[in-house]
Write a structure and sequence with these properties.
The protein is of the alpha+beta class. The chain is built from nine helices and 23 strands. Strand 1 and strand 2 form a beta hairpin. It is globular.
Length: 476
């Protein structure tokens, strides 16, 4: 078979962008499809959107497993994660801790250690749909006191092993992302975080054994969804091996048209695979547009900046099940295109962190890696800890590949203007007269978007008294 690249030109609010997908095929996909083939294509697009939180989590599970991070292994980064760990919208201030589990053979126990001085962990235990089971650690249920969390199948009536919390899980697979609480990212703090992380335990409580730990720092981890036929291989794996829910009956019915059904071998023809390739790419373009351009579903924070996740996420505690009985499929799918993890407790009044998103400049044009821009961060940023702004690839929401710097933070030695504001410059080359500490590199030939993170956000952010300005094209 030969390789062919198919390009989709998509007009988004006046800006033409190209989503490209390399497809292994004998011939280019015919421009005309039969009625039955059109239905395969339509249902493939719809089910790709439906499955996004699932495929996002499975891609991470499989990517980490390839480097040895199997079930019940605590995998951690001994330094700040970089582009080599390809996951959606990571930060560059706290080293991540990941663990995956499966309760097909019985419960799994997770022991979260108590906070010690200025060292702690916090994050969320989730099922494979990324629905929260419990927030844990310093800002979770145990409030930093430490606790044992037993994850059990629904309807479980066996031994609870004196767990502090028993958490029924609908799916067999689950995972967690935990963040060490450290004062800074200095070598001493990172070493302390690594030592503290090794107090986290995950094990089969019926056969307790010493927890395995794996430092994945510097490893190449492919933890993002590929928008081609492989996306439907992930969906088929889920259908064959996981618990299926009545709420998803219509989507499972649509998957039958693709040849995906529990107990049935998935054997698409080459022509069907070509259709799936195209449908997956079309789903990606839709998810990008829905996430970056549909501001009606997100809380506006001024000047084109919005909260990164739509109201349907935190108003439903990330179940995405609306009062009307509908699932917010487009909100859910587009969100998990751009990020992963959820939270049991999230609000717009007093959250521990707040992230803001934009994707366009002051001229309402999509941010382009070949153009130089500036963002003037006003003085007196309402944070009790620090702020940061990070850049991500528009195509897959990862750190820009091959780069060693992804943003700036107020904890760094930034050049500050006389009025207390800070000018951050983004572009393919460092402009003359700009401090390197205030510069964030971007890649020519692609788009990007920023997350602005407020750690310990203050009331002025939520009242609207403090607003970020638009990102402007750079003028020397």
């Amino acid at each position: 078979m030969k390789e062919a690249t198919v390009a989709f030109a998509v007009v988004l609010a006046g800006t033409t962008w190209f989503a490209t997908q390399t497809i292994a095929q004998n011939d280019a996909l015919p421009s005309e499809l039969s009625t039955q083939e059109k239905m395969v294509h339509r249902r493939a697009v719809e089910t790709a959107v439906w499955a996004m939180p699932l495929t996002n989590a499975l891609a991470m599970r499989d990517g980490f497993a390839e480097v040895g991070c199997d079930y019940n292994v605590v995998c951690y980064f001994s330094k700040i994660q970089d582009y080599r760990a390809a996951v959606t919208t990571p930060n560059n201030t706290t080293p991540y801790v990941m663990a995956f589990w499966n309760i097909a053979d019985g419960p799994v126990m997770i022991d979260v250690p108590p906070t010690e001085d200025d060292l702690g962990l916090w994050g969320t235990l989730m099922d494979i749909w990324q629905r929260p089971l419990a927030d844990v650690g310093a800002k979770g249920r145990d409030k930093g006191a430490g606790a044992s969390y037993l994850i059990v199948p629904e309807g479980y009536d066996g031994d609870t092993f004196d767990a502090d919390y028993v958490l029924p899980q609908t799916t067999l697979n689950g995972y967690t992302l935990l963040r060490p609480i450290i004062p800074d990212a200095s070598p001493n703090s990172l070493a302390a975080a690594e030592e503290f992380t090794k107090k986290l335990k995950i094990f089969d409580p019926g056969q307790p054994a010493q927890t395995q730990y794996l430092d994945v720092q510097g490893m190449d981890i492919d933890g993002v969804v590929e928008f081609d036929r492989s996306l439907f291989v992930l969906i088929d794996e889920f259908v064959q091996s996981e618990n299926l829910e009545e709420r998803d009956a219509v989507a499972l019915g649509m998957l039958r048209r693709l040849g995906i059904e529990k107990g049935r071998e998935f054997t698409p023809t080459e022509r069907e695979l070509e259709i799936l390739d195209h449908a997956a790419n079309e789903a990606k373009v839709f998810l990008q547009e829905a996430y970056f351009d549909n501001h009606s579903e997100k809380q506006e924070m001024g000047n084109g900046w919005t909260v990164l996740t739509p109201a349907s996420s935190y108003e439903t505690t990330f179940s995405w099940l609306l009062d009307s009985g509908a699932i917010a499929l487009d909100d859910r799918g587009s969100s998990f295109f751009a990020f992963y993890t959820s939270a049991e407790e999230f609000n717009l009044t007093a959250p521990p962190t707040m992230y803001l998103l934009t994707s366009r400049d002051a001229d309402d044009e999509r941010l382009d890696g070949g153009t130089t821009y500036s963002l003037v961060v006003p003085p007196d940023v309402p944070v009790s800890q620090f702020w940061s702004v990070l850049v991500y690839d528009f195509e897959d929401a990862t750190f820009l590949d091959g780069f060693e710097k992804y943003g700036v933070a107020s904890t760094e030695d930034l050049e500050v203007n006389e009025d207390g504001s800070v000018r951050v410059v983004f572009g393919p080359e460092l402009p003359d007269g700009v401090s390197e500490s205030n510069y964030v590199p971007t890649a020519t030939g692609g788009g990007w978007f920023p997350y602005f993170r407020f750690y310990g956000p203050g009331e002025a952010l939520f009242s609207g008294d403090y607003q970020l300005p638009k990102i402007e094209k750079f003028i020397e």
